[in-house]
Amino acid sequence: MTQGKYEMVVGLEVHVQLKTRSKAFCGCSTRFGDPPNTNTCPICLALPGALPVLNEKAVELAARAALALGCTLHPVSVFARKNYFYPDLPKGYQISQFDKPLATAGSVKVDVGDGEKSIGVTRVHMEEDAGKSLHDRYPSATAIDLNRAGVPLIEIVSEPDMRSSKEAGAYLRTLRQILQYLAVSDVSMEEGSLRVDANVSARPVGQKELGTKTEMKNMNSFSGVERALEYEFARQCALLDRGEQVSQQTLLWDAAKGEARVSRTKEGSHDYRYFPEPDLLPLVLHSEWLAGIKASVPELPADRKKRFTDEYKLGNEDIEKLTALPLLSDYFEAAARISGEPKGAANWVMGDVQAAINASGVPISEFRVRPADLGQLIKLVADGLVSRSAAKVIFGQMVETGKPAAQIAHDLSLVQVGDDGAITGWIDEVLAEHPEEAKRYLAGEKKLQGVLVGFVMKKSAGKADPKRVNQLLTSRAGAG
Amino acid sequence: MTFPDFSRLSATALAAKVDGGNVSPLDSINASLARAREAGAGRESLNLILWSNEQLARRDAASLAEGMNRAGKGGRLAGIPIAVKDNLATLGLPTTCASKILAGYVSPYEATAVARLREEGAIVVAKTNMDEFAMGSSTENSAYGPARNPIDLRRVPGGSSGGSAGAVAAGIVPLALGSETGGSVRQPAAFCGVVGVKPTYGRVSRFGLVAFASSLDQIGPIARNVDDAALALEIISGVDPNDSTCSSRKVDTYRDEFLPLATSAEPLDGMTIGVPEEYFPEMLDPGIRALCERSIDLLKSLGAKVVDVKMPNTALAIPVYYIIAPAEASSNLARFDGVRYGARAETAALRDMYAETRSKGFGDEVTRRILLGTYVLSAGYYDAYYRKAQSVRGLITRDFRDAFGRGIDALFTPTTPTTAFAIGALTDPYEMYMSDIFTVTANLAGVPAMSLPIGRVGGLPVGGQIIASHFCESTMFRVAYALEAALGGEAHQ
Of the residues B184, B205, B247, B435, which is catalytic? Predict the structure, then answer.
């Protein structure tokens, strides 16, 4: 294999389900997992005489996504019919956009370790999802579930700007993160709310023209996309090495076998007979409406990372983890602000908080310990009122009871004693009880400090502020 | 029968009788049902009516009577029996578009236009025969056999709304709904000697109208006089959240504008009516030409200024129509695939199921148009056919804008080049297509147009067409109402 002679060229088509309550062209629910065909009506069943009416919320989410991807939103775009027969496509056509899409010419910045690179976004257009064909429900028949038919989608088409599977993976992860921040989609490949088709070709290094591409479908994870690209690139390189041609075709990825099979050749390709959808007026976006959408675009991951770095002085690794998910990063930021301890907040969020959330299985929005409560706990530690070990106990109680940190600390008598009188008393007692160690320590044997602090802590039942214990002991030794 | 003059009563007069308590809704419905039997409206004779359910109609009449008792009054169409073209979704009766592929299909929802008529007290007594999926001009392309013209049983009633026009002409109902894509209300209205209206595109909601060519389709009323047609249009017009192409423009009160003119000597004073020469070609039946000329003289005598006008792109309308309409139809009819409803051929493989279901389910004309439409939308042909047709459609629209922009209020033309032809006479599809030559332009341009009876040639009715500018139905009705009055009863003789 001489893959080194060739360069991989990848362009991706990503379908994203928009998180609307109702479908793109009717009032049916978009809920996932309901009994088959319960979320249907004359419109999404394509009964004779039914007409589509555009869901404005879908336009809003699509426009927000297009703006966040740096696209130019077109004041007028046109819906078009994409005609083909399939049992789960009720109308015999999909309402999509063709030559006048919602938005064009955006970009996504990715970094795979060798500097930032911009991947072009050719277009973002709106369309509707098809239903589902269930081939495993009945032994000799295919069942059709039209709950998904008419769910709003955007298709995000990239330029062929990616040069490795790693870049493709980075593009997808960045895209997913942006969409998560925008709250426009669940972006779950598992539930099918994000789907990826990959166009891949190989060309000799240094050659300008693109090679013949193939289209890879049916990947069900980002790592699956990367594996499929590697597989297909290797296959194409081998063909080229042997002096053979790559033929234009569609391939289906089989994740279990780690290989792809041909689903359609160029000769068998569809003629979709696109034409403007006469049942819908052109989609006109008024400038005032657009201004409102622009204002609704939240801080995006890249900006947030930069701001967290500047404001909270955290390391790269922490920043990546803390900004991975928008709600988690909101949570961190609230806790950091309330406690005034960004580093402490970062450690708590990445450690105990995430572990507790993972263990309980609840989404962060429903997690019992609200960021303000966590901020208070961090503040108690910073102020020396509870010890780090006590804080862990208190946090555990907060998760269970939802009570505020201060109350739990009080109820469990975990408030540290910082009072010099009490600590001096415990030190006196310890020194009296351990005369041999006391003598050696006071004589200058500093390594005994830890042992003595431990005795004092034990005597205080963990309540003494260890910092103050250390200070008082040291001053005793210095005086001796 | 409770009242022998039922078949001559206008919808407004009958509704007034019902509302005034002189005639019960049930009497009215019974009279209609009796007249249908007497006229032989069913399959065995005129074949105007595909589906009816007397029990259901009587039940509707009874519940209307109850509602009227409670409210103390009925609607503007209280107790009016109506016939509805079989491509409009109705509750209770099948909606088959006169196609085998929808045999037995009953819609779970109702078309907006039908629901609005019901809200005013109308009762659906029949679903009427039509050319399959509204593709045709004679109501011969029906899976249930050709309909006959009640004026002359050997002749077609026109189409595709032939059943609806025939039912009104036969005195079975005073009011019916048809649909237009290229003249399917006006042409049968002309052939049957009744009034038929094609509203401005977007004036009436298409929700529940089984789509043929979405950018051309409109529902329109058919009645025995202009007043009834105007009332029906007022009722069915107006914004509908279920149809994005339906206009939110306020609906004019057409009747308030023309009824006061009844006593005026020159009701068209100040109006300019254009007569486009392209609508009077050599092939025009001389009898029709003569009747048109007489109507033009009458328009002048009513105070209108009549001017010649040029509509230079008229000849392009038929070729443009037969690209755009089949293109949209090929897509609109894709949903009849045997998967969810209607007929399904039992075959092993999916592709065979599609092929057989559709080959057996659709008639020849529908198949021809689906093939034509699929072809013109195909990669490599789209620009040469569909795109070009759309731009020529723009030229045809411009002809109308130019005319109406130059101070012309309405156009007067014949509705059809011939009177009703004999059943089976037109075997060449192209010949059949030419019978829409004067009507198809209004659909392409989206302007309102109507046909009203202007006399008879050889005993067969002739229609005159009045075309107005977008959303100027008021102007159109004003001209039609004045002309109808001036013609007196003679147009119907």
Answer: B184
- Say which of A92, A274, A278 has its CB closest to residue B214: A278
State how far the Cα of A183 lies from the Cα of B340, in Å rounded to an integer.
35
A420-479 has which fold?
A: Arc Repressor Mutant, subunit A (1.10.10)
Q: Tell me the per-residue pLDDT of A288-347, one tens digit each, with 9 for 90 and over.
A: 999 999 998 999 998 888 888 888 888 888 888 888 888 888 888 887 788 777 887 788
The CA–CA distances, whole Å, from B479 to B165, B299, B474 equal 22, 8, 9
Residue B389 host element (H or E):
helix B388-405
pTM of the model: 0.89
pLDDT of B79: 94
With a cut of 60, say whether residue B50 has pLDDT above it. Answer: yes
Of A422, A345, A418, whose CA–CA distance to A386 is shortest?
A: A418
pLDDT in tens, B210-254: 999 999 999 999 999 999 999 999 999 999 999 999 999 999 999
Catalytic residue among B28, B52, B85, B205: B85
Tokens representing A163?
A: 């040069």
User: If you compute the radius of gyration of chain B from its CA atoms, what whole number of angstroms results?
Assistant: 21
Only one residue has tokens 């130059």, namely B406
Q: In one letter, which amino acid is A135?
A: H
Where b means 16+ CB within 10 Å and e means fewer, A25-64 reads bbebebeeeeeebebbbbbbbbbbbbbbbbbeebbbbbbb
Q: Give CA–CA dist B432/B424, Å, rounded.
A: 11
| B contacts of A51 (beta carbons < 8 Å) | 206-207, 211, 242-245
Contact residues, chain B, for A92 at CB < 8 Å: 331, 333-335, 337
Domains located in chain B, CATH noted = 11-257 (3.90.1300.10), 263-314+392-492 (3.90.1300.10), 319-383 (no CATH)
CB contact under 8 A, B244 and A45: no
**Domain ranges (residues) in chain A:** 2-289, 301-411, 420-479
Structure tokens at A111: 């970094």
Q: Judge contact between B129 and B49, C-beta under 8 A.
A: yes
B272 contacts chain A (CB < 8 A): no
Structure tokens at B464: 């005159």
- The answer for B 338-357 residues in CB contact with A (under 8 A) is 339-341, 350, 354
Q: Which amino acid is at A7?
A: E
Are the C-beta atoms of A7 and A202 separated by less than 8 Å? yes
Partners of residue B370 in chain A, C-beta under 8 Å: none
Radius of gyration of chain A measured on its C-alpha atoms: 31
Q: Using 50, 70 and 90 to split pLDDT, how confident is the model at B133?
A: very high
